[in-house]
Amino acid sequence: MIRTLIIFGALAGLAACDSGGTRAQSAASDPAPAASGPGKGKGYSHDPFPSTYRAYPGAPTLLTNVTVLDGEGGRIDRGQVLFRDGKIVAVGQNLDAAGATVIDGQGKYVTPGVIDIHSHLGDYPSPGVQANSDGNEMTGPVTAEVWAEHSVWPQDPGFGRALANGGVTTLQILPGSANLMGGRSVVVKNVYARTMQGMKFPGAPYGLKMACGENPKRVYGSKGRMPSTRMGNVAVDRQTWARAVEYKRRWDKYEEKGGEAPGRDLAMDTLRGVLEGEILVQNHCYRADEMAVVMDMAKEFGYHVSAFHHAVEAYKIADLLKANNTCAAVWADWYGFKMEAYDAVPENLAILDKEGACAMIHSDDANGIQRLNQEVAKARASGIKAGMHISEEHAWTWLAINPARALGIADKTGSLKPGKMADVVLWNGNPFSVYTRPEMVWVDGALLYDAKDPKRRPVSDFELGQPGEGDVK
Amino acid sequence: MTRKLLLAATAALAPMAFLAAPAAAQTVAITNARLVIGDGGQPVEGGTVVIRDGKVVAAGTGVAVPAGIRVIDAGGKWVSPGIFAGFTRLGIVEVDGVDQTNDTGPGNVGFHAAIDVAPAVNPKSSPIAINRAEGITRAVVAPDNSGSIFAGQGAIIDLGADMDAVSKPRAFQFMEWGESGARAAGGSRPAAYAALRNVLFEVRDYIRAPGSYVDRGKDAFLTRADAEALVPVVQGRMPLLVHVERASDMLVLLQLRKEMPGLKLVFVGATEGWTVAPQIAAAGVPVIATALNDLPESFEQLAASQSNIGRMAAAGVVVAIGTINQDEARQARWEKQYAGNLVALTRVPGATGLDWGAAFAAISSRPAEALGLGGEFGSLKPGRRGDVVIWDGDPLEIGTSAVNVFIDGVEQPLENRWTRLRQRYLDPKDGALPKAYQR
């Protein structure tokens, strides 16, 4: 009862700010009517489901005698990594680590935690029964109003597997690709919590999931409605962006100059956020020619595509992607499962990288997310076989700083730089080998997986009391 | 006519490597190999393999090389039997999402057990060429079910670059059990159980008097053609591969076999197999398991663990790796990575994996043995088919490539769509002419 009252109270306060506040201010300060609005970006809340994530406590720790891949292309052999109070303190050799727990990692590697920019953990969780299938709001081609975080089930057993077997510390959870505009994504830290908000990465921008190609035209064409073709896809997109530009103009004007508040449209809120650069476009797209069309469409309406996802033909337009400063998040070697995946090659990531485009690995899969280090190893090996020189430390950028940049969180995580979150993996060998697994994983300096300690192995609510509870998995 | 001529001329100019038919079976010795027999043993240095008339004559150390034959000095490289992919849909699908190229299911024809995948196998499908280039030389190819627990008869194929892909048609019958079987049978496990028992006993009737068996067509539980196809299953002459995941479902099948002792059961998938491994081992039922399933993806896979295969093997079960419902139309190549991951588990406290030799056997001899074909395929023991691969490294390690691939003693071309596309786009920028002119 008290909680209910507090929530209602908060809402009442917001309402006052939105409308009454403006009027009061104008009346008091300026004889001319409606001379100022609530201020830029203050017309409505941009963070109604704020993160409640808190780092768990961790001991100051020195990892020593390890090969360090720092996630930005740096490497130190027989190096050290020191972290304390949840933050990276220093990376180097002969560090002053007074009072720290020392872990000798002879023969082992230390890297920043793996970042997966494309996951559906939580919105397509295990068990994959219909009752849990919450990833695609397949009732209209434009559902920019939905937010993946409202589907995320924080008890998905997949989070624990991604941590223990994959060393994944940060992931973006996206809506599916049935729709042209499938809704907002959410970036989470891979730490179990009772609520979605408890996992939410503090300060990470939202993404807008968009999709081109076969999926939207198939899903809606089969319902006898637009779009049923690729040209229909683009037409619906452009018509929607045209509305969004108008929506933004009205809200900008209101926030700056006041007057009567325009009507709220949750889908348009998201698109306005994209046009403002506050929300990053994460665009599912396979074919090279379609990506080129999308990048022109983005210019037409004044937004930027942060990354194309899947992008199996990105290698064909690596130069164009570079020129547009747009990243590609790809698989190592998925191919052929549908027509637009027919021209996949395992050198995709390496060719993109060679041409100077921003490239990275992604999983889109609850199993694949457990082996992204191996996927990077495959992509690197394919590039080397094609004659390229790709060092281990450079290849590790494909699951560290590059996805961090494409998610807008590179100032917080994605590499072992002093001051960044201590998201760290100690591997029991070379992580480019199939024979290597995570040995210890820290998130914000807290030890959340230790292969030697069954008590440092997460077990989701769903798995309690079930066959195999607490198994190594 | 003119058009035909032009096309022929174009074809003649195409790169020979891509169009080249493989040569005839050679007599060849591969020497100085880090040799893997594929029977579960560890690799040995300085090994030799001799292939004659498409078959392995000898393999090991101290093998004499007959005079006058082609000798390939492997220079210390790894040499092993080709990978025998334990459960796939290779060669019957080009693009999964393009129905016209997807021959996995029976559609609405009304036949089930009688379905035979062999006529659908297309040796020129691109997944065959891509997997061949990565050292996959044989595969179990299974149909998919629809409208019945019985999917039909699967084949053993080779991945050679010739038009004769089917090594053994009608090598097994495939059946869905558990959740997918229940769905196919009308919605529940008891329905599937009743359907299975009914079918098996109807087949017994058919065997007693084939001439008087009345085919009731689509309305029947069992058409005449389906009954006929199941005769070798009931008589124990054809393995029955069963996709089953939940432990209790496996025990039901083991119990049923007491009524039908002839059934040669092989479990496929078997996610919860480790929880009943002693019973499976005692029943002598081989398993073609999914290697790395560790998620409770369904309520019949709650006990999923990557240690499943290792634990079953430790209990004495013959276990092979298969790829059911894992992009099995095209990614048999991943089986090498899966096997490597099982070796990785041997270094994870509390987990059970396989040692290297056992892991390699799980993608070579074990699947052949599970099908009852270990005498013909899957290892480099004398008499086996001459499926041999020379690798530029440890075949289970990431980044290792097949250097030479022999199938039935015939050295194979390794070009495919991947290598062609890579060649065109290694430099993505346009040249003096459009990309379409660059080959």
UniProtKB/TrEMBL annotation, chain B:
Domain Amidohydrolase stretches: 309-409
Presence of the UniProt keyword Oxidoreductase in the record: no
UniProt KW RNA-binding keyword: no
Signal peptide start and end residues: 1-20
A GO MF label: hydrolase activity, acting on carbon-nitrogen (but not peptide) bonds
InterPro entries in the cross-refs: Amidohydro_3, Metal-dep_hydrolase_composite, Metal_Hydrolase, Metallo-dep_Hydrolase
Pfam families attached to this UniProt entry: Amidohydro_3
Keywords from the UniProt entry: Hydrolase, Signal
The protein, known as: Imidazolonepropionase-like amidohydrolase
UniProt organism field: Sphingomonas leidyi
